[in-house]
Amino acid sequence: MGKFVWNKELETGIEEIDNQHRELIKRIESLDLAIYGGKAKVELVMMIEYLESYVNEHFDAEESLMMKINYPDISRHISEHKSFRELFARIKREYMEKGANNYLAMELDREVRKWFENHLLVTDTAYASYLREHPIQTGG
Ligand SMILES: [Fe+2]
Fold this sequence. Notes:
about 75% helix, elongated, binds fe (ii) ion
């Protein structure tokens, strides 16, 4: 569980994006704790509501930032976003059909932790370090 803490490598320096990453990490931690504490269903609903805005606002913010800096690996990044959007849509559909249950909470927990390890720690830290080396030109 201690793995899900803010990681300096993730820092983009863009406040909106860094805050969205911090928020996701906090939510993963809460879902984890809720599952151990027998409150999985409530937290599952909150996580689904949260991810709804995460896959829209956060992904859009990242994608337009990467366009702005001409990030060379943008298409791979966008395709990872697309697969997470699809995964989320499937889980949400299951929730709409069957309601909240512990299995779905555990599945979502597993998937967001995988997402953290494979995307935030790898793909997001890659563009964050590119951004630190190629800062946005502010004119002048
Ligand atoms: Fe991303």
